[in-house]
Specification:
The complex is a heterotetramer, with two copies of chain A and two copies of chain B. By secondary structure, chain A is α+β, with helices and mostly antiparallel strands. Chain A is built from 13 helices and eight strands. In chain A, α5 runs antiparallel to α6 and α10 runs antiparallel to α11. Chain B is α+β, with helices and mostly antiparallel strands. Chain B has a domain of 149 residues: Butyryl-CoA Dehydrogenase, subunit A, domain 3, CATH 1.20.140.10. Classes of the chains: A alpha+beta, B alpha+beta.
């Protein structure tokens, strides 16, 4: 057990100063404002500036386009990215897809090309998992891929392909054999998004993010972009899914909770509420002078701290649901000022309360709904009997 | 055991009440589809809709005939507010109706302009956020021990906010008319704020019911794993719980309205309780519906997003941090 | 809409005074102490005293053993029974079973005999629904009834037959045809509990109640005790079940919530907490001087009031779950004194806080679990699609 | 955004910690089956079990070697308390261990008798409910600005209570030894009470985990509608949520213990938070397990009933009404 402060070496301290100065410079108000408006989770200049330092792939050797950072510096870099609110959704999906591409791209030249692009920022990748009407049942994908000589022809659509407008490739789940059991008829591709027949249509969420519907109309993709064997897509897919679902091991510096990325949104909101509580009104009284206000702040903070330490898939559920519950409670407590939005005078903490409450609602869905995670916990942690559904021989789990 | 009171326990609408509810349900369904709600963003005010609603007598319906009203009741008002909420109508219903009642109670003729109420005491030079003040130049507020009607030249500047309501920072101006003073001023103001909370509670309950209908419809048709999503207990139970919370909040709103109308002052905590219950039903219910619709519910094109944003957007625009303390204090005081 | 006080006629006022004086006299400390110890929900002297006034069947005509009370007086009587904590579980199950017996007992002499006994207190009846291991799936009953000439031979057991030790009959669900779909092979009987082969074994709950396991070992029961047709037991059973599930109409004097019977347990607990809050400590301060304490009392009272008005099966769920949540919150608030039990000095409100918290846990099960009620609401109120289970063509609902 | 602290985040037990947990898990599994728990009712004390536990050094293991201890840590103690909780051990673990640590901190030799702590200030002539005072004649309390060891001739009279704990009304007697005075007295007492809450939080977390195991086992085997009960989301999800609450509370207990041990005073709110989280996990979890077992879970013969009664029975015996206010106050104070 160890919750201690990490003592930094002089080199690590220098790195921390360097990173902070770097982000202070490149994450300008314009960058943040643009991100607020577009909700893209991506800024090309910032992305390329990160790439220039090898910080998109910080743990990779310098010779391969990385920065050769040790785990402590990687953690510092991660926390600085969070602290500076660097738009980084597309950077994250790119890393996720790379894991599968590295392992399953058969063509070494293409693999090397993608790898170099991931590091230098010119190759960015997004997730093409969800069919329209498909919900969480990724294995039920219907987008069709039909072989035609050395090519495949794709027809169908994917929704929630976040970042597609800024990516070169999408990690696409296709149905190559509708006759086989649903998990056995999938094939994965790394589809170039500049292929003729690809159309990207923006979808905005009330959390402020932009995602996309992507249509595939007779898109032809060469067989070299296939990942893994034909009809073995489920195996290929499960790597990143497991990563997203946090079944993978984590080191002792990393966030304990898979939901911490969500929970962090609560921090500025809570800080805004604390500031509100400590600010005297015209008559000199502070909300914090009321023990009932303090008690509610204490309750909310307790929920946050409890969620922070909840590991793995449990932390995923707890993080999302804590963010939803506590952001709402903060708004109830603070009142009118809490629902102001950017541009309003008297905005508390940059609108963090309003933002947290809206953003929260997507977090029970991203990368699998909380129900998917509850099913995982029921079956893999509690070992409860698996429910049987007519349409599923398996439920996002391991093949039997 | 605790002693009992022998009361009737009947929330069923009688014929007249039913007629009021149905008339306004029909009105809002017809006049206020979601396209109207969207078109009114971000200010949250549709003047044509409001004009038609005023024509239906909504502002004065609950006033005594002597004050130009129809002798309607608080019960009628919560029914109207509930239907307005169900369709997210962008109109200053609670503010204007309560302000109008307050003017009538203070024997002051109401004007033709939209009027609203400042919920916190007004201090010259100090701004407060006032619901609907971005469309109302007339604001009633408590200043010192006086209840004052402040009449500005024009409404205050709208501030962007989550629920797209006409919220504004407002401060008392020079054009003031005293409506009442002393303990009566405070009492009138407190009643008006309680009425505002009760009508908002009614609107939030209707809002949640409107959202639930969208969620139920979605899960009936969407399939996963070869079964309708809505047949899974993990999906169905939260929707069931939403229905339960709506039923609970609605009848509490009804009971509070009935007591306010027929035995005013006997259960002063009921409007605060109703507001608390309706707010929590709306918070839970709209989040549940959004989630039941999966990624789709999280997109701005889904109507459920409109409901979600107004759940907090309508309830947070009044200060309520001390409501429960007041309820507790009233209950302890009732012991003696 | 009407939540008004009922104005009593002079006769009704007199009745109220009479009822109160009557219960003040017969519900002695010994009666309450015995009930606390036995948890039987029954006291023979009290039961017979009620019968002597026709108050077991108060709305029946005097000539049939009732008291001919109007609805207002019936309501007064009910509230006085509650107010005086009269043990009345067996009186209630008797009334429930009588509804089926009245309709389905084919033999007029037996019917008349039972009716007279219900009114004069000598016939008391309990519910024999649940097979051991049977849970909420009443239609899955396995206790066997085999016809032997003019008699039936019963073999099996039922659990949670509350009151059996004080009853003459049990309303028994039996399996008469194991070959037919499960809802079509049931037959109901009114089984005399003094029949040879019946053995009653006490079960105690931590809520303080006593219930029973009842074993049926070759019990012979005459065919005249059969209720309804052979294999039509589900129809017979549904009457009282629907009544228990609150699908039946209710008049405007009655409790709105099906869960109010449970919720009432919260009232003395809340009253005890209010008294605690208003009591000064040695230094003169009262818990109620702390706004945070007031706020929590306000929250709890709000939950209670909201539950009170929740009608039908929704009220059943809300009543039980509100009682569970709020009794726990009251204990958390009040602290050590809240968990004291009878006999302890410094007991608040007769131990109402401790009792409410324990009693609460049974209320999510009595007469069908909250899950059964949620399923009913999902299917009958929200019209959600019915789940399909391999073992059920129907789920405690109407036959298709 | 809020600035960060670079800390390790590792709740995994190291080899020594694992050894402690396993030793005590084994001990309680073997020595404290539910029959022992039942036999100790209603007092809630098994003197033989306690004697064996003392032999294992539980009272002094966390004291410095100079004070006769093994230099164990708060972490070791929460591990022991967790395993005691899992088996509902009827022993005064939290009280006696915290009192012993308090005596050591005040450089007072501990005696051979069971010692406990009065959580509220002791006023002559005023009785308070003190955990374990029905088996402890030695009670440490804060009186005015002094920390005092009161040594009675015999323990106070046991009062019946929900969790079958050795609770008693106690008041300060004549035989008193001053352990410390002034701000130091208050500080020592506050630390001891925080430690007590933390160990109780650990016990409650273990308790909930023990209950969950019973619930999970039941729903795996019981069938309804032709499927195992546990395959229904309506049954499985609350059990999943119980597991989540346990994991959340456990790691908060660990973190609070680690900080108390290694950076005392830096996060004084953590033990209160851990207590709150563990209590709410126990409340929800034991009720969920009882309910999952249906009518059976509600019977006294089911072991789950033992767990349910101790969830509140162990957590309510200390005053905690102001805990969250104190947490909030500490956070606001941290702003400046």
């Amino acid at each position: 057990m160890d919750f201690g402060l990490v003592e930094l070496t002089p080199a690590q301290q220098a790195f921390q100063r360097e990173a902070r100065a770097f982000f202070d410079e490149i994450v300008t108000d314009e960058v943040l404002e643009e991100e607020r408006e577009t909700g893209a989770g991506f800024n090309l200049d910032v992305h390329l500036a990160l790439a220039a330092r090898g910080w998109l792939t910080p743990e990779w050797p310098v010779g391969e386009g990385g920065a050769g950072l040790d785990p402590v510096c990687c953690r510092i870099l991660h926390l600085e990215l969070v602290y500076h609110q660097v738009p980084r959704v597309t950077a994250a999906t790119t890393r996720l897809v790379w894991q599968a591409a590295e392992r399953y791209l058969a063509d070494p030249r293409l693999r090397a090309e993608v790898k170099a692009g991931v590091a230098n920022g010119t190759v960015r990748m997004c997730l093409g998992y969800t069919d329209p009407d498909g919900g969480s049942d990724v294995a039920g994908a219907r987008l069709k891929a039909v072989r035609d000589g050395d090519e495949w022809v794709l027809n169908g659509a994917k929704t929630f392909t976040t970042g597609a407008q800024n990516c070169q490739y999408t990690f696409l789940v296709t149905r190559t054999d509708p006759e086989r059991p649903k998990h056995r008829g999938l094939t994965m591709f790394l589809v170039p998004l500049d292929s003729p027949g690809v159309e990207i249509q923006a979808i905005r969420t009330f959390g402020g993010e932009r995602t996309n519907m992507v249509y595939y109309d007779g898109v032809r993709v060469a067989d070299r972009y296939r990942l893994g064997e034909v009809n073995e897509g489920w195996t290929v897919l499960r790597g990143p899914l497991d990563e997203e679902h946090g079944m993978a091991a984590r080191d002792r510096l990393a966030d304990l909770s898979m939901g911490q990325g969500f929970l962090r949104t609560l921090e500025p909101a809570f800080a805004a509420a604390l500031t509100w509580a400590a600010t005297p009104a015209a008559d000199g009284t502070r909300p914090a002078d009321d023990p009932a206000v303090l008690a509610r702040l204490g309750q909310i903070a307790t929920g946050y701290e409890a969620a922070l330490g909840t590991p793995g898939p449990m932390g995923r559920v707890k993080g999302a649901e804590t963010l939803i519950a506590k952001s709402a409670e903060l708004i109830d407590l603070v009142g009118p000022q809490a629902v102001l939005q950017p541009g309003a005078p008297g905005l508390l903490g940059d609108g963090a309360l309003d933002f947290a409450h809206r953003f929260a609602q997507g977090t029970t869905i991203y990368g699998g709904t909380v129900e998917v995670f509850r099913n995982i916990i029921a079956q893999h942690v509690l070992k409860l009997p698996r429910p049987s559904y007519p349409g599923a021989k398996q439920f996002l789990g391991r093949p039997r | 055991m605790v002693d009992y009171e022998l009361r009737r326990n009947d929330p069923a609408l009688d014929e007249d009440e039913m007629a009021v509810r149905e008339a306004f349900a029909e009105f809002f369904t017809k006049e206020c589809p979601s396209s109207v709600v969207r078109a009114a963003e971000p200010l949250g005010f549709d003047s044509a809709l409001w004009a038609r609603l005023l024509e239906m007598g909504v502002a004065t319906m609950s006033l005594p005939a002597a004050a130009g009203g129809d002798g309607g009741t608080m019960i009628d008002l919560v029914l109207v507010a509930g239907e307005a909420g169900r369709r997210l109508a962008p109109v200053p219903l609670a503010s204007h109706v309560c302000a109008t009642r307050l003017l009538a109670a203070a024997s002051t003729p109401q004007g033709t302009r939209i009027c609203t109420i400042a919920h916190a005491p007004a201090v010259p030079g100090v701004a407060q956020l006032v619901p609907d003040a971005a469309i109302a130049a007339d604001v009633i507020a408590l200043t010192g021990d006086e209840l004052v009607l402040y009449q500005g030249e024009e409404p205050a500047a709208h501030v962007p906010n989550q629920g797209s309501t006409p919220l504004a920072w407002w401060q008392p101006g020079a054009n003031r008319t005293t409506l009442a003073s002393g303990p009566r001023a405070a009492a009138l103001h407190e009643i008006a704020c309680a009425e505002w909370k009760l009508l908002t509670a009614a609107a939030l309950t209707g809002l949640t019911d409107g959202a639930l209908a969208l969620g139920v419809e979605f899960v009936k048709t969407r399939e996963t794993m070869g079964v309708p999503v809505g047949s899974l207990q993990g999906v169905a139970y939260p929707l069931v719980d939403t229905a339960i919370e709506i039923a609970a909040a609605r009848n509490l709103v009804y009971r509070a309205a009935w007591m306010m109308q027929h035995e005013p002052g006997v259960r002063p905590e009921l409007p605060l309780m109703a507001f608390g219950a309706a707010r929590s039903a709306a918070t839970f219910g709209t989040a549940t519906v959004v989630h039941a619709q999966g990624g789709l519910g999280f997109t701005v094109e889904a109507d459920s997003s409109l409901y979600f944003l107004r759940a907090k957007g309508w309830s947070a625009i009044t200060e309520s941090a001390t409501d429960m303390t007041r309820v507790g204090a009233q209950l302890v005081a009732g012991l003696g």
